[in-house]
Specification:
CATH superfamily: TolB, C-terminal domain
Number of domains: 1
Mean pLDDT: 86
Shape: globular
CATH architecture: 6 Propeller
Number of helices: 3
């Protein structure tokens, strides 16, 4: 087991010359919370009565002109579902850049399909809530957390960053500011398992965690946890530690996930940002992180491998979604105007996640 590493934000500050990541997040999240705490309980309901039913998410093909960046071919194999946080919506974009489906939701930071795409899990970080929705009916299935009321007890979260449904109907949540990972068993609001201890933000997995940004299930039923202070933790099905991989070259790693057997992909959520593919032993296999030019990333929040080997990147700080050819390191598809936020077709505002949306 890796030796405990005490979080020392001031030391990292002196070394890097930048304001500590954790401090920046606290300031940002407090501002967000002040706004979102004023929302009513109704705000956690994602689908409004006038919203088209969620099945169109999987079936709509889009129509009319596309709105891709100039020179973008239709490089995606399927539609993508985006958590468009700044626009308070979930939106589906076709490979041609058409808006196929959208629905309003309060500042979604992440949205992911559960097994068999029967449900989606939505994280509302600034509202301290995660919820699940039925894909068949659009009905709200489960809510964990109290809007605008952060905490560490039962049915309380503090800046949750990601949530995933797993095969047994349970939900795993990265409760980042509480330095915990929760295993939830709907409909109960009492966690079935807790990794980490609220307020004890130290790298010593699985008993203590240092600001876990994400937990992703793997194809084999295991788990990948990203600690934003610079670690990827590989956990067994029973949540025991298998291996901890240091990422000292990343100031703020985000959303490490398995894209193939024995292979991981992770982003450096910073400016200038980067994406790395690495083996489960820590060997870097591929890296993308231009220091300048149109390919430069700003606070990328998620990268995932596509079936054809290309890489789908959520370039959140640049208000765009990219597909990158790993061989040429060229951007071969882009939706969104670089660094220009907006809500009209062709525009995004701080998109935090993007995943393939297809019926099979």
């Amino acid at each position: 087991m890796a030796q405990p590493l005490q979080l020392d934000a001031e030391a990292r500050d002196r070394q890097s010359g930048h304001e500590p990541t954790a401090r920046r997040r606290v300031i940002r999240d407090r501002l967000i919370a002040l706004v979102l705490a004023a929302a009513t309980l109704v705000a956690i309901v994602v689908v409004t009565p006038s919203t088209p039913p969620i099945p169109t998410l999987l079936s709509a093909t889009g129509s009319g002109p596309g709105h891709l960046a100039a020179g973008s071919p239709a490089a995606l194999p399927a539609r993508i579902l985006i958590a468009d946080r700044g626009n308070n919506r979930l939106v589906v974009i076709t490979p041609r850049g058409q808006v196929a489906w959208s629905t309003k939701t309060l500042a979604p930071t992440d949205v992911y399909f559960g097994p068999y795409k029967s449900s989606i899990a939505v994280t509302q970080r600034g509202a301290f809530v995660v919820l699940t929705l039925s894909v068949a009916s659009g009905a709200l299935q489960y809510v964990y957390g109290q809007p605008g009321q952060p905490g560490a007890g039962n049915n309380r979260l503090r800046n949750p960053q990601s949530a995933h449904l797993i095969a047994n109907g349970r939900l795993v949540v990265a409760d980042e500011a509480n330095c915990r990972v929760l295993l939830l068993a709907p409909p109960s609001t009492r966690p079935a398992k807790v990794l980490g201890q609220a307020g004890d933000c130290v790298h010593d997995p699985p008993s203590r965690l240092s600001y876990p940004d994400a937990i992703f299930p793997t194809r084999g039923g295991k788990f990948v946890v990203t600690e934003s202070t610079g670690w990827i933790d590989l956990l067994t099905k029973g949540f025991s530690l298998f291996r901890a991989l240091p990422l000292q070259r990343f100031s703020d790693p985000f959303d490490a996930n398995e894209y193939a057997a024995g292979k991981l992909i992770v982003t450096s959520h910073s400016y200038v940002g980067a994406v790395e593919e690495l083996s489960t032993t820590g060997t870097v296999l591929w890296r993308y992180g231009p220091a300048s030019g149109p390919g430069r990333l700003r606070d990328p929040s998620l990268a995932q491998g596509l079936p054809n080997g290309d890489v789908l990147v959520c370039d959140s700080g640049n208000d765009r979604i990219l597909v990158i050819d790993p061989q040429t390191k060229a951007i071969v598809w882009q939706y969104g105007h670089t660094g220009v936020a907006g809500s009209r077709p062709g525009y995004l505002d701080s998109p935090d996640s993007a995943v393939l949306a297809q019926s099979s």
